[in-house]
Design brief:
Number of strands: 0
Strand content: under 5%
Distance between the termini: 7 Å
Helix content: over 70%
Order of helices and strands: HHHHHHHHHHHHH
Length: 251
């Protein structure tokens, strides 16, 4: 069946809109809900209520607790404001708001990322978790730095690419919790006790929460580069490549 150009584009736009709304709403939910217990109650009291994360930090030295609170608060704020950076209408109609949100997100990552690196050796998943969460913290901070440096030198395309990578790392906060919601019940269903299930799940999600995100981001960036290359070729030659013409045929 031969499709018109408008059909696939409208479908793609609808899928993109749904995906964007999912990202915005899930990020906002986690950004608000996840830090709330730690801002309204003490770590020691939460630890008594069987909070594994709180129990891990309740009796740590002050520097570890400071790193924990810096990470929780500023990572939550970065997660809350970052999705606004990818709303095209906002970038075009309110560039000042876009810049303000970008500065807030970048500043938050520069605080939360190093704090996460300090926390990595203290995580509940041991050495494996230290590598997983430590790598996440380094990449997260590095991507934000690269995005900032790119926009400072006026390289908008590189800035956008690095910002997408940085958000893939920011969104790890959402994916970590979603994976735990999936993995914990599955392991309990096969006979593991809840504590063992959580420990094993946490071991896996130290990588699972961010590696797929980064792979998806790189896939998106690659498609965007190919699309832009094709557009340049069309503008230069006036004719699309044979592969581009075949994109309008659905088998």
């Amino acid at each position: 069946m031969v499709m018109t150009e408008g059909g696939p584009r409208r479908g793609s736009t609808r899928r993109g809109t749904v995906a964007l709304w999912w990202i915005v709403l899930s990020a906002a939910a986690i950004a608000v809900v996840a830090p709330m217990p730690y801002l309204t109650d003490s770590l020691r009291h939460l630890a008594q209520d069987n909070g594994e994360i709180a129990a891990n930090y309740a009796y740590r030295p002050l520097w570890a607790q400071v790193a924990f609170y810096l990470h929780v608060c500023f990572a939550g704020l970065a997660l809350l404001v970052s999705p606004a950076q990818f709303v095209t209408r906002l970038r075009v109609r309110a560039p000042r708001v876009h810049r303000i949100c970008g500065r807030i997100a970048t500043g938050c990552i520069w605080i939360a990322g190093p704090a996460g690196l300090v926390m990595a050796p203290l995580n509940l998943a041991g050495p494996v978790g230290a590598v997983g969460f430590g790598t996440l913290a380094v990449l997260w901070t590095g991507f934000a730095v690269a995005a900032y440096r790119a926009i400072r030198r006026g390289d908008v395309a590189s800035h956008r690419d690095w910002a997408i990578r940085a958000f893939a790392m920011t969104y790890a906060a959402v994916m970590l919790r979603l994976w735990l919601v999936v993995l914990d019940p599955l392991q309990v269903a096969i006979g593991l006790d809840a504590d063992t299930a959580f420990q094993r799940s946490y071991l896996i999600v130290s990588f699972l929460c961010w590696v797929p995100n980064l792979l998806v981001a790189e896939g998106m960036l690659r498609r965007n580069r190919n699309r832009n290359r094709n557009r340049r070729q069309v503008s230069e030659t006036g004719q699309p490549r044979p592969a581009d013409r075949m994109n309008h045929v659905v088998r």
